[in-house]
Amino acid sequence: MAEASKGARSWLRRVARIVKDAGQWRLISTAVVLLAALLCARFSWDYVPVVGDAERALYDQRVSLFAPRVDQDPRIVLVVYNDETLIATKKRSPLDRATLARALRTLDALGPKSIGIDILIDQPQDEDPELVAAMRAMKTPTWLGYAGTDSNAEQIIYDQQQFLDGFVKRVRTNAMRPASIRLEADPDNVMRSWPAQLASLPPILVQAMAPSSAFARYAGSIRYRLPANPDRPVFASFPIDLFTDPAVGAAFADQIRGRHVMIGGDIVDNDQFETPIRNATNRSMIGLEVHATMLAQSLDGAALPRVPGWLLWIIALLAILAAVFTSLAELRWFALAPYLVAQAVLFGGLPFWFQHGGWDTQGVPAIGWVVGWVLAFAAVGSAARAVGSEQRRFAQSALGKYLPRDIANQILAEPEKLALHGEKRSIFVVFTDLEGFTKLSHAIAPEMVAQLLNRYLDSLSDVVLAHGGTIDKFVGDAVVAFWGAPISRPDDGTNAAKAAYAMWQAGEAFRTNVPEGVPPIGKTRVGLHYGEAIVGNFGGEGRIQYTALGDSMNTAARLEAANKSLQASVMASREAMERSGLDWWRPMGRIVLRGRATPVEIFEPVPDFPASDRDHLTKILSRLEEDHEAARADLVALMMRHPEDTALAHLLFRIEQSGNGDAYVLG
């Protein structure tokens, strides 16, 4: 519980920091994208074209998956013109009306409950008188297909409308009346919904054949069903030819009596529609079967309830909030994965759960939830990354862009550790310089100078960062670094001393590995000092730099410069030596640095110098004031054991020049 509370507080602090640092325009732009994400998560079905297509495709998958599997429906029978009928009658369009007239007489005699004719009689034919007579003689409630130019302009023109209206008047009786056979396919020609029941048209065929108050204004999804047995389709279908002869038709009396009979075409490439269950059936569906499907739905009273709009708003808002929380969560992928999986299950599974529960999931923006989630996640994540990037750039700029990784991570996690003003700190300072590089740069091509300098500075920078230091600046070939700011650690002294020596070693490795034709490169000189400095951001309003200022910086620089006169490579002050925690130092006397009046004791790191000789040298220097000649003689003897040690030789020279333990003044 405490851990969760701590995590929540950390998350809230991060959110507050992002909001504070984001800036007005970034907040506004993020809010605009979040609003767009919310609207997409709610209205993607209707107003986002590409997403709308994906929504319809996913809806079809849900319908195919959960469509009820049923035995053949005993209430509805299809009587169809098929391609064999067209061959036999030698007519394709319009369909042979004599065949229809004879079939109607036969069917009427077999006692069906109702008859619906999904055929438009919209142009004259020679057999019209026979059909008119048959229709007017019908005893069974029969409904003749009707369409209007105002709602079906692509299927019927004015002249056809006029003929149809006249024909309906000629055949209309108490038993024979018109019914709208209008269907509404989606733009992808998939029949998903009931057609709008327009006041300008007669009742739709389904409502005419079996009126239902539940479907009087229903415009929801068509409930499609799949056959339980692939060999027995949902609706029995018979060729109309079987009913043109009353004697043959009588054999099918049991299949017709008391049932709703629907007459229409089942002709290849004509009146064919795609349906949501195409994935399950692998075939299109004739318009007549679509009418039969709606009729069965009406007879079952299966008006599918729509998911309430207020609930869709809540789910859309939850999807956006989940994306925002996820985007701002500071979790590793393995910790974040369960939350992502839970969200995927929730938002991905809800539409299928609704479908399985008998809801109409047309209009449920399942893809919209995903797109809205992604938009919100990207918008908030982008804003957070932008703010984080600015904070990161600020931290990097404030620290000269050369921080060890662990310190940088601490500052980015806790920016308050970075002082945004100058503060007095005790730090270890290292100055380096590459001997003779200025002269060398005039002797080789500028491109080679840049290449060598970059490689040299990279190698020294790596040493500083590897030892936890902060790179203050580069001044030509010189590197300035310090330890103890912006974050101080107990081992700063040890790390600074080791880094100073390692930087000299890196310089030695560099000078032995230069391209052919480059003149010899001088050695790297290093100065190390410990003292107080003012550390913080300095500069103008438009540009700041994190650096250290003060006498300690100057002392370290002068120690580095002193190496040239002392014929040494690395030199440290007593203050730095005492706080290093290392035993590899040997004392190198007292000197007065150039531009200074106060002497300083200096020490040289010599890990390869025998410990006994280091101790002996310490004793020699401590005896200088008491017995100068004896101490000098001992130093000469020590130097003879190390004839190539130039720094030791120069120490003897300084002692001879300065007298009894006096400080040597560098010129």
Describe it for me?
By secondary structure, the chain is α/β, with parallel strands linked by helices. Helix content is 49%, strand content 16%. The strands form four sheets. Strands 11, 12, 13, 14, 15, 16, 17, 18 and 19 form a nine-stranded mixed β-sheet that branches. It has a six-stranded parallel β-sheet with strand order 5-4-3-8-2-7, sandwiched between helices. Helix 3 crosses helix 15 and helix 5 runs parallel beside helix 6 (128-136). The longest helix has 33 residues, at 366-398. The mean pLDDT is 87.
Write the layout of secondary structure elements.
Elements (H helix, E strand, L loop, with lengths): L1 H21 L1 H24 L1 H18 L2 E2 L5 E6 L1 H7 L7 H13 L4 E4 L10 H9 L5 E5 L11 H14 L4 E5 L24 H5 L16 E2 L8 E4 L6 H5 L2 H4 L3 E6 L6 E2 L4 H4 L3 E2 H13 L9 H20 L4 H24 L9 H33 L6 H9 L9 E12 L2 H5 L4 H21 L3 E6 L2 E6 L8 H20 L12 E16 L4 E6 L1 H16 L3 E4 H5 L6 E8 L7 E6 L5 H12 L5 H14 L4 H13 L5 E2 L2
Parallel strand pairs: 1-6, 2-7, 2-8, 3-4, 3-8, 4-5, 14-16, 17-19
Antiparallel strand pairs: 9-10, 11-13, 11-14, 12-13, 14-15, 16-18, 17-18
Percent helix among the residues?
A: 40-55%
Report the major sheet: 9 strands, mixed
> How large a portion of the residues is in β-strands, by DSSP E?
15-25%
Task: Let me know the number of strands.
Answer: 19
Number of contiguous helices? 24
Oligomer: single chain
Could you name the key traits of this structure?
rod-shaped; nine-stranded mixed beta sheet; 19 strands; alpha/beta; six-stranded parallel beta sheet; 667 residues
